[in-house]
Task: inverse folding
DNA sequence: ACGCACCCGATTTTT
DNA sequence: TCGGGTGCGT
């Protein structure tokens, strides 16, 4: 048997003996029980702020130190790289040894790793590319054009979501009916299968493939499955409530041999239903693993009692949940403050006023504040006021660095060098910078590659054989080919560093000089971004000298913004409720509490949707340690137009004794410093039910463009009523009542 | 093939 | 409001 001692001897590590007390002393009794129960299936229900990460890290440390489990035999899966790194760091700190061999990472990165090793069996090469959303859409668009389906006005984006949904659910496309689909099922299947084939031809996988192909691998090659099943004696899963069908299946497969599976999660924090997360996975854990032990972590160490009570009063409106209630030894603390404002700018000003007030009174830093919102677009008004006020801020998320055009362009070159079969990348760069190779020419080459069943790159190699292309165009294609070939060779020889390779390439392409000539603000920005990319590559190589360009690209593909968010800066954090998960701040603002925005209108029609919005609120509220503010703006610009809204139903669900209401900020131009601040009229929350429900299921209506139809369901209150109508001509549609002129026929 | 101008459309969340 | 996509003119 392997032991840490043996391993340490081999590696020359130093082992610091730790007493039993030191490892478990910082745990409360439930936490300790959860840590010590290592065998069999374990469900650890960890409420927000109840020490979830602490239990996970101590459990791993406990396994290694006390149960003498070899780190190689532990598999720990998280959703974000940040969580994975944090976990690793904390375990290393507990044990005081480096954990090089432990399998700890995100689902996607861990299975990518397994696939890199084994995918030849499935007909992929180990250097496969990972396609992000934009790449996937580009591929689908190509297929639509290629199949002459352009006339059908198919939306590549929604097609991608469908494909993603099907893959995440781990079902075949024939099993899904999209009632309101604009295209016929047959066409959809055709596109689906072509998409899948084309991915493989390009030696590429999308995010779902990383999991789906792993399942294929395990099913088709039992010996491979057996290898990993035997290897991983202990499996730990973080944020189990966010697992989707694929992840669920993989966990189940991998744990079959040893049955030692510990999952940690909180059903109340399941907020990724839209990307396939299935809350049933955690709710049904007991049935899936009948001999499991359950541990409930309900003591919260983060928030004041008032904050917890607010969070609980919202979440207890959900029916589909496991009953539990967080408690704390902390003081009730300050009441939660609700701020009602006229519009988004006022809302932002009020927030900033509060921030400055809090800083003065409680000696806080800007970094102690987080402003949370439902949609990224909301950050703009807040940013504007923060800028005016000269306050530093960081927007977490938003336009992602690696999705910027200039970055994707450069990366497409690198991806081509790693995997010349990647047709999507080649298509992207074949005429960037402009070489006089136009859309028609590209189509011809593509057709040639399909006809001869070769990759786009091979087709370019054989360009001479394509007769319909003019010789002038051919020569620029050959020039492009020569360029790629040259760098492929340079890379192959391996005597230049990656950083050198990339910067010479960019130099030869003349991208920076071209952008400099343009001289616009945007081009200068692009130059900065490309420079930053180069720095990033350099950093990566310096930090990981043994890793290659392939590794770098994988890292880029699987990274998120929260991962590289610099928390050291003394700045106010602006982020969506989703990206706030797992974080905490002394003071938190939840903004935009209006019907249609939070809860978001698209998520208001079914109970499941609404319950997820409620969980999102719960996540947001439980981020706050000391003080929570809620805010609404009665008027908000939407699509460039002013719309007036009503206060979120969530405010009605809150226990009013826990909240203090301020209705303020009438003036458009506020001088924050001289702002006198008096709570004024008491706001009435319940927005009555005048002219309630003339619209009921079964009523016949007429819509100006869709024609006649029958109302199927009615959701939302009277101000934001959403009707699901089955139209005679166009099928089922969701209609927001106030945006259309609906006539009642009968 | 490329650039410009205009128009339209969209705005949830992300590994 | 802003950005992308389309379509037209060169």
Result:
């Amino acid at each position: 048997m392997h032991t840490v001692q043996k391993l340490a001897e081999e590696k020359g590590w130093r082992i610091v003996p730790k007493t039993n007390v030191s490892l478990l002393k910082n745990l409360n009794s439930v936490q300790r029980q959860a840590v010590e129960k290592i065998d069999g299936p374990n469900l650890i229900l960890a409420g927000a702020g109840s020490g979830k990460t602490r239990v996970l890290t101590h459990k791993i440390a406990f396994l290694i130190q006390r149960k003498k489990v070899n780190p190689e035999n532990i598999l720990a899966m998280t959703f974000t790289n940040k969580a994975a790194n944090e976990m690793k760091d904390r375990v290393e700190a507990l044990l005081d040894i480096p954990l090089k061999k432990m399998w700890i990472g995100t689902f996607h990165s861990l299975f990518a790793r397994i696939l890199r090793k084994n995918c030849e069996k499935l007909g992929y090469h180990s250097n496969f590319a990972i396609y992000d959303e934009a790449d996937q859409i580009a591929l689908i668009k190509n297929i639509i054009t290629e199949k002459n389906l352009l006339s059908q006005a198919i939306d590549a984006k929604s097609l991608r979501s469908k494909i993603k949904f099907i893959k995440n659910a781990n079902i075949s496309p024939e099993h899904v009916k999209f009632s309101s689909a604009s295209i016929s099922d047959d066409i959809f299947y055709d596109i689906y299968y072509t998409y899948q084939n084309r991915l493989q031809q390009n030696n590429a996988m999308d995010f779902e493939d990383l999991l789906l192909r792993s399942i294929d691998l395990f099913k088709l090659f039992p010996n491979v499955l057996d290898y990993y099943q035997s290897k991983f004696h202990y499996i730990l899963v973080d944020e189990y409530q966010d697992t989707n069908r694929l992840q669920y299946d993989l966990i189940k497969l991998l744990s079959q041999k040893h049955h030692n599976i510990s999952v940690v999660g909180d059903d109340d924090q399941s907020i990724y239903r839209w990307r396939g997360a299935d809350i049933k996975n955690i709710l049904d854990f007991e049935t899936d693993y009948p001999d499991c032990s359950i541990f409930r972590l309900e003591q919260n160490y983060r928030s004041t009692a008032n904050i917890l009570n607010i969070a609980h009063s919202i979440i207890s409106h959900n029916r589909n949940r496991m009953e539990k209630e967080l408690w704390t030894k902390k003081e009730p603390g300050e009441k939660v403050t609700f701020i009602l404002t006229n519009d988004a700018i006022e809302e932002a000003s009020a927030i900033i006023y509060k921030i400055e007030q809090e800083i003065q009174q409680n000696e806080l830093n800007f970094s102690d504040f987080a402003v949370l919102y439902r949609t990224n677009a909301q950050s703009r008004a807040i940013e504007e006021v923060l800028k005016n006020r000269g306050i530093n801020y960081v927007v977490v998320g938003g336009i992602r660095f690696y999705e910027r055009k200039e970055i994707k362009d450069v990366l497409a070159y690198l991806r081509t060098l790693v995997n010349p079969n990647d047709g999507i990348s080649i298509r992207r760069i074949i005429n960037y910078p402009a070489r006089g190779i136009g859309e028609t020419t590209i189509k011809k080459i593509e057709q040639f590659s399909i006809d001869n069943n070769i990759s786009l790159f091979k087709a370019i190699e054989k360009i001479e054989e394509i007769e319909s292309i003019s010789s002038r165009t051919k020569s620029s294609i050959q020039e492009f080919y020569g360029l790629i070939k040259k760098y492929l060779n340079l890379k192959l020889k391996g005597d230049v560093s990656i950083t050198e390779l990339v910067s010479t390439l960019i130099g030869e392409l003349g991208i920076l000089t071209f952008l400099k000539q343009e001289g616009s603000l945007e081009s200068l920005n692009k130059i900065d971004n490309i420079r930053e990319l180069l720095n990033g590559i350099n950093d990566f190589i310096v930090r990981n000298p043994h890793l290659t360009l392939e590794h770098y690209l994988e890292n880029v593909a699987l990274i998120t913004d929260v991962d590289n968010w610099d928390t050291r800066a003394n700045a106010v954090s602006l982020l969506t409720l989703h990206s706030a998960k797992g974080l905490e701040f002394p003071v938190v603002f939840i903004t935009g509490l209006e019907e249609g925005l939070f809860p978001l209108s698209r998520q208001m029609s079914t109970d499941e949707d609404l319950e997820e919005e409620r969980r999102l609120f719960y996540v947001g509220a439980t981020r706050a340690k000391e003080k929570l503010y809620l805010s609404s703006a009665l008027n908000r610009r939407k699509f460039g137009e002013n719309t007036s809204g009503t206060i979120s139903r969530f405010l009605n669900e809150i226990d009013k004794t826990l909240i203090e209401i301020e209705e303020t900020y009438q003036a458009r131009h506020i001088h924050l410093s001289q702002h006198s601040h008096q709570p004024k009229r008491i706001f009435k929350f319940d927005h009555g039910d005048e002219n309630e429900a003339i619209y009921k299921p079964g009523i016949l209506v007429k819509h100006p463009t869709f024609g006649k139809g029958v109302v199927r369901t009615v959701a939302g209150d009277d101000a934001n009523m959403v009707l699901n109508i089955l139209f005679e001509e166009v099928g089922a549609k969701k209609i927001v009542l106030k945006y259309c002129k609906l006539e009642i026929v009968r």
About this structure: Residues 471-493 of chain A form the longest helix (23 residues). Residues 665-693 of chain A have pLDDT under 50 and may be disordered. Chain A has 28 helices and 22 strands. The two ends of chain A are 78 Å apart (CA to CA).
